[in-house]
Every structure is written in C-alpha cells, then in structure tokens.
Amino acid sequence: VHDRSAIAGIVPPVATPLTVTEDVDRAGMGRVIEYLLGGGVHGIFVLGATGEFPWLDDRQRATAVEAAVDAVAGRVPVIAGIAEISRRHAIANARTAYAAGADFVMATAPYFGSMAVEQGWILEHFRAIAGETGAPVMLYNVPPWIADISPATIATLAELDNVVGMKDSADFIHLQDVLARTRGRNFRVLCGIEGHLLGALLMGAHGATPSSANLNPALFVRLYEAATEGRVEEARPMQEGASRFVQELEAFPSWFSLIKAGLHLLGLCGPTVAGPLPALTADETERLRAILVGYGLLS
Amino acid sequence: VHDRSAIAGIVPPVATPLTVTEDVDRAGMGRVIEYLLGGGVHGIFVLGATGEFPWLDDRQRATAVEAAVDAVAGRVPVIAGIAEISRRHAIANARTAYAAGADFVMATAPYFGSMAVEQGWILEHFRAIAGETGAPVMLYNVPPWIADISPATIATLAELDNVVGMKDSADFIHLQDVLARTRGRNFRVLCGIEGHLLGALLMGAHGATPSSANLNPALFVRLYEAATEGRVEEARPMQEGASRFVQELEAFPSWFSLIKAGLHLLGLCGPTVAGPLPALTADETERLRAILVGYGLLS
Amino acid sequence: VHDRSAIAGIVPPVATPLTVTEDVDRAGMGRVIEYLLGGGVHGIFVLGATGEFPWLDDRQRATAVEAAVDAVAGRVPVIAGIAEISRRHAIANARTAYAAGADFVMATAPYFGSMAVEQGWILEHFRAIAGETGAPVMLYNVPPWIADISPATIATLAELDNVVGMKDSADFIHLQDVLARTRGRNFRVLCGIEGHLLGALLMGAHGATPSSANLNPALFVRLYEAATEGRVEEARPMQEGASRFVQELEAFPSWFSLIKAGLHLLGLCGPTVAGPLPALTADETERLRAILVGYGLLS
Amino acid sequence: VHDRSAIAGIVPPVATPLTVTEDVDRAGMGRVIEYLLGGGVHGIFVLGATGEFPWLDDRQRATAVEAAVDAVAGRVPVIAGIAEISRRHAIANARTAYAAGADFVMATAPYFGSMAVEQGWILEHFRAIAGETGAPVMLYNVPPWIADISPATIATLAELDNVVGMKDSADFIHLQDVLARTRGRNFRVLCGIEGHLLGALLMGAHGATPSSANLNPALFVRLYEAATEGRVEEARPMQEGASRFVQELEAFPSWFSLIKAGLHLLGLCGPTVAGPLPALTADETERLRAILVGYGLLS
Q1: What contacts D101, CB < 8 A, 6 or more positions away?
Q2: Across D109-234, where does the E strand assignment appear?
Q3: Touching C: which chains, 3+ CB pairs < 8 A?
Q4: Which among B180, B196, B232 is the nearest to A172, CB-wise?
Q5: Is A260 among the catalytic positions?
Q6: In percent, how much of chain B has pLDDT > 70?
Q7: What is the pTM of this model?
Q8: What separation in angstroms does the CA of C83 have from each of A43, B113, C188, C270, D199?
Q9: Residue of D35, D98, D140, D224 marked catalytic
Q10: Is B275–C146 a contact, with Cβ atoms under 8 angstroms apart?
C-alpha cells in the first residue's frame, strides 16, 4: 500500500505487547490489532510512543514491526516508527522496518533529553533519512517531549517526493499552519491530539492517531465518520465524549502502563510495560476496569 | 447593555492612545473606536493587555474607560479590564470602571511575575470581585503570561449569577472543555487567539477578541460572519488569511508598539507606548506600512 | 547613610504587617524591626517580595516605607523596594520612598506576568530611574518571577554613579559573574538565596537578604560572622543548618503567609496577608509553631 | 581501581573521536587521553554527554570504553557512562562496560525526550542497575536535559554498598544538599558545572568533571590544587578565569562540535561529530583557533 492517499482516518499508535521478561509478544500483538481492526480503524501505527519505542532495543523493535505487518496482512496500511536520537541509527531502523514490510516509516526530530535542537538539524535529519533510504517517510511531531518541527521546516520537507505526511501532536495553530502551507501537495496530516480531532478534520486534516483508541477504537471511528460525512452538529457532542474519555484516562499516573493494563483487562495481552515504566497498582487497575465497563468495553 | 447575550462577535481589545507624556489621549481613543465600529465590530474591550493595562496607573485607567464609554455611546457593549495583582486593588478597579459606565468588567487571575498561583486562590479572587462589586464579571484567561484558569474553576464560577463569560486565550482543548462544562448556562466565551477563531466558533464559542483587529477589524468581522452563517468552505481560507496577517505582525519585536505604530500610520493616534515598552524603529515602521498597504488598509 | 559601603551583612526583606482590613500596621512594623535589630541584622530592606510589595497599592507602600524609616531611626541603612511594571510608576515610587527617608531604593526589571522582557528594555528602565531620580539605586534581581538581569546589563549599569549595588537571587554562576564583572567598583552585591549564602560570601559577596531571617535573624547573623571572620570549617555546618531551616519552611504552601504566621506566633504582628494570598490553616500554624519551638525561637 | 576514594580531582568527560564514517577512532581516543593525563587529570569519564553517548549505538559504545581502558592502562580510574532510556538496556550497557575493564559505571535517570519522570521510577532504575550488575555504580545527574535526581533519592541510593558516588550538574543548592545528606558515607561527589567548581570544593565536593577540560585540562587541575591546598585567595581569580574560558566556548552554536573541532585543532583527532550534530563552520573554527591560541594551547 504505497499510495499516500491510503493515510487517512483513525490510525491508532498500537501498544507493543510484552511478555513478563519484556520480550515482544507476537501473539498478543495479533490480538490487539484484530481488536482495533474490528473497531473499524483505517491503519496501524506501530512503534509510536504508545508502542513504547523509546524503551525497546533494536531487536525488540524489529520483532514488533514484523508482528504488526503479519497481523495486519495488507488489510490497512502499516506505518512503522523509526525514531532514534542519531541519524545513523534512525536510518538503520528505517531499513529494517521497510524490509519487514511496513508501508510507511515515521521518524521524530533528533533528540536527547530536553536538549534544544535547531530547525536546521531537524531538516538535515529528515533529508538524510528520506534520501538514504528511499522509503516513504512521515514526520512524527510530538512536542514538548521532542523538539517541535516548525511549519516552515515541514513545508520544505513536503517538497521531497518521498516525504508523504506527518502526525502532528503540536498545538492547533501549528496544525492549521501545516495544512495551509502544504495545501495542494496531498501531504497527509494525521492529528495526534484526541481533543483536536473534530476541529482538525473540519480544518482539513486527513485523520488522527488517537492513543486511547487502543482501548476504544469505535468511539473515534464513529466521530471520524460523523465529521467527514458533514454531520457536525452530531459530531460535536461525540468530540466532547471522546475528550472526556481521554480526561478520565489521563488521571492515571502513567499513560503507557494504563494502556497496557486496559488491554490486559480486555483479555488481549499481558500488562507488562518496559522498565522503568511502572505497572498500574491493583487499585488503579480496578478503577480502570470501572471506566471500561462504564463505556461498555467490558462487562 | 447588561444582557450577557450582547457579548458576541468581534470584540477587539482596543489600544489605549497615549500622548507623548504618556497621558491618555481621549480624542485618539475616540478616533480608534470610530475606526473599529466602522469596520463592523460588535463590542469594545478597553484595558486588555493590548490596551497596555499593566503599564497604566489608576488614573490613566479610569480615563481610558471613560473615554471608551463616551466614544462608544451605547452603540455596542463596552467591556472594561480591571486586572490587578491584589484582590483589594482589582475590586477598586471594578468599582471605578462600572461607575464610569462599562457594561461588563473583566479580571485576570491574580498574578505576580511568573509566580505560581493555585486554583484555590484564583477561585477566591473572582468570587470576591463578583461578590463585593455585584458587577457583571468576565474572566480574562491569558496563559502563560498569567496563571491558566482551569476549566473546573471556570465551571464553578459560571454558577454565580454575575459571572457572565470569559475571554479564553488558552489552548484549543481548554476552550472546548470550557464550552462543554458551561453548556446550557449562556456563559459567553470569547476566543482570544486569532488562529483559533474559526475552530472556536465551529465548536460553539460566541465571539473573539482579536488584538490585530485594532488594525484590520473588517478582516475578522467577515470571517465571523462567514463562520456563523454556515459558510465553512468559504471561511477556511479566510481563517488562513487572518492567521497569515497575525504571523506577519508577530515578526515585529514588540506587539504593543506595533499596534500603536499601526494606528499612527492609519492617522488615528500617536505611536507612544508606555515605558519601558520600546517604540518601533523607523525601519520597522516602514516595514509595517508596507504590510498595511498590502492589505489595503493604507494607500 | 548614603555611603554604599554601608550595604553589607544580613539585610532581611522585612515583612509588611497588615491589619485585618489590609492597612499597613505601623506599630507592628516597629516591633518586627526591633526583633530583627535585636538579632543583629545589618540593614533593613522594606517592600521586597516578602514585604508583599506586589499586592500593596501606592498608599500602603508609602506608609510601609515611612514606618520602616521611623522604626530603624538611623541605626542601620534602609533599602526601599520601588518595583513596578511601568517606568513612570517606578520613578514615582522612587521619589516617594526617597522623600520618606530611605537610604537606598531598589527596583526590579520591568515585568508583566511571565511576558518575556529584553535586556535592552531592562537597561533603559534602570537608566531612567537612576537618571530621573538621582537617588542611590540598587538592582533587584529575582528570576524566574521577573526577567533575569544579565551580568552584562548589570556591569553596564554599575558604571553609573548612583547605581550602587544589587540583590541577586539568580543562580550561583550569575552571582559569581556579577562579582567578576564589577570588581574594583565597590558595587555592593547581596545574595538573595539562603542556600547560596556561605558560597557567595566566600566568592566575595557583601551580604545577603535572607527572607527567612524575618523569623530567625540570629541564625544568619552568626553564619555571616563565621564566614567573614574566616572560620570556614565552622561556617559549613551552620550553612547546612540554615539550608535545613529554609527547607522546613518551604514545605508550607505559601511563603508569604508562612512568614506572617510566624511573626504572629512570635507576638510581633497579625497574620494577615494581602488577598488573594491565603492565610495558613490552623494545622499548618501548629506545625509552624513546632518548628519555631524546635529552633528555640518560641518556648 | 575499585576503591571509591580514587574518585577525586579533575575527571574530564572525554570526547569520543570518530572517523568520517562515524566509527570510533581508537587511536584518536588514545591521543586525547594522553593529552588529558599530560595535563594532570585524576580520572577519565568515557561516554558522558560530551562523549556523545546519546548518538552512539551499542557497538560504538563498547569500542569507546575498550579504547579508553586500553589508553589509560590503569594510571587513573576509568568511569564509563552506561545511560539508556530503558532499564534493560542500561543494565546490558553496564555489563559490557564493566567486562571491558571500566572501574566504575555511571547511569543517568531513565528518560525520553523531556517527558516527566517520577523519583520513584528513578530510584527503581538505579536499584535495578546496582542490584543486577553488582558493579560500582555512580549517579549521573544532568538536569534539565534529564530529570533531576532529588537529594532524597540520592541519599536513599547512597545507602547501597555499590552506589559509590555521583556527578552533579544540578544547581548549587542541590549539590550542597547532597553533600549534607551523604556526609560520613564517603559518597563521592563530582561537580559537573565548571562555574561551580571552586564553590563546590569549598563546600566539600571531591572533584569535578569539567567538559571544557578536554581542551584545557591544566587550567582545571591548577584550580583544583589551589582549592584543595587552601589557597582560596589565589583560587578565586583562577575560578573567574575558568568561568570566562567556558563562557567563550559557550558562544558557539553546538558544544559537542566545538569540543571536537578544538581537539582537531590540537592535532589529536578528527572533527567529526555524530549526525545530526552539525560540524563547526570554517569561520567558527577560526574563531575557536584564536581562543585556543589566546590561552596558550596552540601556537
């Protein structure tokens, strides 16, 4: 699926199921992806932050991409995260992911802790990845964790043939600015903030990567459909509902652990997160169960 | 005009014209307001940040409100800023502004430099102002300059009879959250970020307080009309145009000085800003003139 | 006492006692100052942040300076804070304070909330205050609440005849840089961070303005004496003790309220702080009492 | 050299020389270390941030440690950085480095971009590394790039037999607090901020890890000697000189590139930095040459 127009709709950043020894659980990945496709999602983004990419080593990452490609089996596009701190390492990741069958690869800006990174470095980082791999590349913008990729940098990169789109988790003005600067290029923009979803679609975004869709894919698929079919009056309370769902989840101490615990409650995989991320406590897990029951995801 | 439903549409935070000795220029205020009303604006907000309230003393502030009320002469509502660091001082400001004929008063959270302020203090600050003055009060949220008023705090305050609305310059999710939590109360929400304007109106906001409307009121009035009349396809490029206009202005070193220099170029008042705000240089002023000519505001 | 060499030693930023109606309590100010002088302090700084200057209006401030000057009665120098957001207002404050008998006046950089302020504005702000008042001016550096005054700006200002010193609450490198750049000018540097006190004195600072000295002046006076008399081995555990004292106080929710509550426990003035600052709860007050008893300040 | 008392004095974070293809240059590492030992340094810290650890992969890191151990040949202790985002990866790094002959290993807090990390996670991260490897572990504190390790967390970790010390690049109060809380445990504290060096030693720190000592080791060795031999009056201007040296270097756009360019000018290794770090321009290199000549490091 190398046609960039396939990048659209709800594309969750799928969690990476782990065994208790923190090896990638291929069967668990298969079950989670089946759950998401059953909820109607339009693509799978493997090795995003929700997929715990920062805490996985090269072998774990390669296995995760393979498992996702196998499970999806061509039904929807697979976008593979390849983010790394160094250029050399990110390029190696891209080659591995592309060889494993990912349709698109997605890299962040280079980063080290909260060290400031200049737009010039970011531009060269993506240019090198696109130029040396030839793979269809997406930009993964996730400030403030990683330096914000400026709309001007994005517009420059969008002129490259194989820079095909982005996931934008920056503020609403940034997203609108990107849309304005890339209009006419079929540069695909996925909104990375659940709360921006309806507004972003109304402004022209092509889809979204809601992390909480791991637990409730249908909620976001329905909202996407209402928005793209012009049923705005209906979509507005659906957006409110989606925002409230996210707010309830954000009350937990660690997002990554929460998503894994939720998938465990749904019977899809184990609750293990990569250390030093902490597991949910028993109390927190019960609180989460009540939320999932309240949304009809569990009985 | 004490009916809160009058709070709607484009309500610019009008600049406060100053003489060279930094006294309030009443005649200049009259000309600027006539220019804004000529552009079709639906209200006047005097003594916002653009009105340089932080740099004006009590006498200057009182004069500015009087001048605005006189100039508007009841044609549209007048909202008067009363922000101060201390509760006692903000209450005194509110009494002065209300006595001078302002229809609504608008206070920020208490603040001192970038000192952290807790929601509990904010709640009590507004409660005291509303309770002790009886005036129709609006909340003025302008993070990160001043501590963000949380949606929960706003929802609590919106239950008070004379807390009638707010100006929200926080992020897009904050604005949506406020709308969701105050639905059904006729709590009036004005969007304070130019780039959020169309999105905010589509989500249910009642209007906006674009600072750059001081120079180009009609641009925002047309956008507001397109959005509220359901012409979304038409409104989207208008929003892009408005965002671009703001971006061009934001390239100048001081926003306050820029607005004043623009009003001076338009022949409405002098370019003086309150010290230590710097004046625009001659070069910057010429650059600004070219922008205003480009938008057809000057010939 | 206009000789700048008098600026040395422990110079606490004295709290401003308030009546329940938030008027300045002149008698209370007298008792607090007597307590501080009894503890051996070498100067009084009235209307610092601990003196709640941001929350006091012009009349309250004038009264506070008068009360401090009267109480000190020439025994040690009086430094009066004159900080304000605008230049015009700061200059007016300086004139009032100097006329009331303050020996030195001390201004912050201009500020408004956490708005960024450029060094050029800061330079002009202080130049205007020094030039238009002729008073002996000190610089009051209190980042991150108010924009950091750079060592280069300070060095430029230190060349003016009536810019005589500063209170530096910036980081340790900033303080050292100021000392290096002003060496040979008798530019008086008071350290504003309790935890830096011994290090700062060893590096050449002239004194300090410890806020917690309001409650425990002798602790800091003894540390100052040990450091300046070359008893470094003895001073090191005294610094540890002073740092621990501050840490215990910093565990309370509001510094200003804590200092006032402490002075109330010591029988010197009422616990009232300017709204919207909150009062200590009864529980917090009892916890504070235990601390003061532990340090032998109360029995 | 497993006696922790050997951790003292000037221990530069040695740069990692790279070939043009970004492989580790073992011979270059040998020359740089010889230069540092010739300048009198008391230890070598390989794979600190200055050693570009974030941009090197596992193979490059292993080679760098081996090269450093070989070059030092037991003359001074070798501390090897093992920082990684995940616990599993950091433990693997520690085993590799310790097997390669490093005397001590040093880990940062876990991190991912500027994501907030709780003290509980940090504590468990270090506990796992110390417990599972048995190696003598040091804590590497480098805020704000990576989450600050609190003095309380450090004190808890210092109770473990094989947690032997730390490098503290936090603020001066943090360093003093660590010294106060670990007194009597022979917990070795190296100061990571050049500008804090003299103050830190006077307060009881055991040494320092000045990054700029890569270019000018003797400057810091002399300052260390003056401070530890009680010649404080002499040390103070030496500290000023060291601070000025660092300030001159900090004016360059990228610290890493600057250190490499300097080592290249000194004839010790190539100027290559790991992508996406940028190389110095020719102009910048000439500016750097002039600085090195000015300090007598080049002729």
Answers
A1: D65, D66, D69, D78
A2: 137-141, 163-168, 188-191, 207-208
A3: B, D
A4: B196
A5: no
A6: 99
A7: 0.95
A8: 58, 11, 19, 25, 31
A9: D140
A10: no
